[in-house]
Design a protein that fits this description.
By secondary structure, the chain is an alpha+beta fold. 57% of the residues lie in helices and 15% in strands. It contains 22 helices and 16 strands. A 6-stranded antiparallel beta sheet has the order 3-2-1-6-5-4, with helices on both faces. It has a 5-stranded antiparallel beta sheet with strand order 8-7-11-10-9, sandwiched between helices. A 5-stranded mixed beta sheet has the order 13-14-12-15-16. It starts with 6 loop residues before the first helix and ends in an 11-residue tail after the last helix.
Length: 652
């Protein structure tokens, strides 16, 4: 456009040039269009001619056109700068959310929009969710989730083309829903422009610019938002690829680490197996194997037998296997963590050999757990070997016991000296006092009773075997009654069934053992006849029955045990309590007839018997005690008046 100087029409040189200079200065100062219009208005007011006014109008139009061109160049420069910045963000992509926020913020700024936001599709939920917003003030709008095909975004996603509306509430081109319309209304949006996010052929989301007043979106605005959407799509796709790459690398690293760990675990397990096997082959005991297992696993260890008794313990306090853990481990053979410890059953096939408890390792890894279970297998092998050796030793010891109890009367080749030598080789010195115990229980439990008796004998340094269907034990002991009671109590607890024990002894040398065995057997039979199942006793414990059953009854000891306190009282004070007690029983437990026989007053008899009660106990005159006491009195008289007084009374 060419502006003609007004001086050629009006002859007023200089006024047009001044006005033109003013307009150029305003353009150079980047003054707003309003300032240009005000300058033109003042110039027209100073000029009266129509030609001057026309020239001024033409000049102002030219200046405004220049101004628009400058504004457009600046806007394009800003858009290009924003696109370059976005490209730089993508090149240095570290945080996808940060890049998307920058894109949305730039979209809002460059388009001069009140709100800009970006939604992404969720294939799993089959809907679209709000990912990033800028300029939004409504919490409901920021948390919107849209069904596929709903709202303006649904139309953009379906057609993969940009769509704009100058008045969203009244636009019928897309499907309205109450949730979307409510969120848009709460945000106060009227005009909305949406463009697709499409890294390839598939639309993955929508980028929006919106205003709270009606607005026509120009092709330049649509093109700019589309460019920013393309950058956002590239960012999302790049982030996805980076995430997949990182995930793949992480899986590869995890696989490599797993392979390395597996290899190390195999090497460690193989080494541990070799070390444990060498211990077993060298004949090491359970203590050494337990110490090696504890060192391998870095914890405390306790090994238990089938009945829960401790076989070995290393670096831990006394601990019992967890009942829950042991029960579960016996089912599948695996180590089980329960009650703060690891428990593993020692199994040989279906046979239960014992258990191992590992303490101090609540964080046992899979590799260590398998190592623990492998160590348990080696322990099972050791226990089986040990049991085989023990069974062989038990057979030898049982055979020796059987030969000892056979006696010279049953075998012409019986040689006590040879048997004593065999016993010496097994660590048994028959010259020391020994007692024999014969044990019995209900028939279903007898095989286990024999095994437990043999195990008990090993702990006592004794011999054990079976004879006549009963378990027999020959133990170093000078108190057979105590031995019998202890065996009955312990074995009854272990078997969970009454074990009755008859004992006899002590004896010195092998010659006396057959007779001792016969006496212990009679004692066992007497206990059964008396209904004392689950009890243990020797002949002396049976009272007068012991005198009747004993093959070598010690009458003096029996009298002393029954009447000892009274005899001692008479000897010390010169009283006649024994004579009074004898008269009382001899005359039918009658005070009056006893006082006549003693030639004393009845009160004297009563007083003397009260003293007897103090010495023998308040139950001295009960039927059972009275029978014992009366028999002891008669034996006391016999030992004082006949040859029996110089020794024991023998059974005929």
């Amino acid at each position: 456009m060419t502006a003609t100087s007004p001086s050629s029409h009006t002859g007023a040189p200089g006024r047009g040039a001044a006005a033109l200079r003013r307009l150029l200065d305003l353009l150079a100062a980047d003054a707003p269009a309003q300032d240009l219009a005000e300058a033109a208005a003042r110039a027209r007011a100073d000029w009266a001619g129509a030609a001057e006014a026309a020239w001024m109008e033409e000049t102002v139009r030219a200046a405004l056109s220049v101004r628009r061109e400058l504004d457009q160049h600046r806007r394009r420069e800003a858009e290009l700068a924003a696109l370059f910045d976005t490209a730089g963000d993508l090149a240095a992509l570290r945080d996808l959310d940060a890049v998307l926020r920058a894109i949305v913020r730039r979209a809002r700024t460059l388009l001069g929009a009140d709100v800009a936001y970006l939604t992404l599709n969720d294939p799993a939920a089959q809907d679209t969710f709000m990912r990033v917003t800028d300029g939004s003030v409504s919490a409901a709008f920021q948390q919107l989730r849209l069904g596929m095909g709903e709202g303006l975004g649904g139309l953009v996603a379906q057609t993969a083309r940009p769509y704009a509306t100058t008045d969203y509430p009244s636009d019928e081109r897309f499907r309205h829903t109450s949730d979307i319309d409510g969120g848009v209304a709460e945000e106060g949006l009227r005009s909305i422009l949406g463009v697709p996010l499409r890294p390839g052929k598939e639309v993955i989301g929508v980028l929006f610019a919106a205003n709270r007043a009606p607005r026509e979106f120009t092709p330049d605005a649509i093109a700019l938002l589309t460019s920013l959407a393309d950058h956002a799509a590239v960012a999302i796709d790049s982030a996805r690829l980076l995430e997949e790459t990182r995930s793949t690398l992480a899986r590869l690293e995890a696989a490599n680490e797993t392979a390395r760990a597996h290899s190390a675990a195999l090497h460690r397990a193989s080494d541990a197996h070799d070390r444990l096997t060498q211990l077993v082959l060298r004949g090491s005991g359970i203590d050494e194997v337990a110490a090696e297992i504890a060192a391998l696993l870095g914890g405390g260890l306790a090994v238990h037998d089938t009945d829960g008794s401790e076989l070995a313990r290393v670096h831990t306090r006394p601990v019992t296997p967890s009942a829950q853990g042991l029960s579960a481990s016996r089912v599948d053979g695996w180590a089980v963590f329960a009650d703060g410890v690891w428990t593993c059953a020692i199994l040989a096939g279906a046979e239960f050999l014992g258990s191992i408890v590992l303490t101090g390792r609540a964080d046992l890894s899979d590799a260590d757990r398998r190592l623990f279970e492998r160590a348990v297998l080696v322990t099972a092998l050791l226990l089986l070997l040990r049991r085989s050796v023990t069974e062989a030793e038990d057979r030898v010891r049982g055979e020796l016991l059987d030969d000892l109890l056979t006696g010279p009367a049953s075998s012409a080749r019986w040689d006590g000296g040879s048997l004593s030598l065999r016993a010496r080789r097994l660590g048994v010195n028959l010259a020391e006092p020994h007692a024999i115990a014969v044990l019995d229980c209900d028939p279903p439990h007898r095989p286990r009773l024999s095994a437990e008796t043999a195990r008990t004998a090993r702990g006592l340094g004794a011999l054990a075997g079976t004879r006549g269907g009963h378990a027999v034990i020959l133990a170093p002991c000078d108190r057979p009654g105590t031995l019998a009671r202890t065996l009955a109590q312990d074995l009854s607890r272990i078997l969970g069934s009454p074990v009755t024990v008859g004992a006899a002894g002590p004896a010195h040398g092998p010659d006396q053992l057959p007779a001792l065995h016969a006496e212990a057997l009679r004692c066992l039979e007497a206990l059964s006849a008396l209904g004392r199942s689950g009890d243990g006793a020797d002949i002396a414990d049976l009272g007068f029955l012991g005198v009747l059953l004993g093959d070598r009854a010690d009458v003096t000891a029996y009298v002393e045990r029954v009447l000892g306190p009274v005899l001692a009282y008479d000897a010390k004070r010169g009283t006649e309590l024994i004579r009074t007690l004898g008269a009382y029983y001899d005359h039918g437990a009658s005070f009056s007839r006893a006082k006549d026989a003693l030639h004393v007053h009845v009160n004297t008899v009563v007083q003397r018997l009260d003293r007897v009660a103090q010495l023998l106990g308040p139950d001295w005159n009960t039927p059972a005690r009275a029978l014992e006491t009366h028999l002891a009195l008669r034996l006391h008289r016999l030992t004082r008046s006949g040859p029996a007084g110089r020794g024991a009374i023998r059974r005929p």
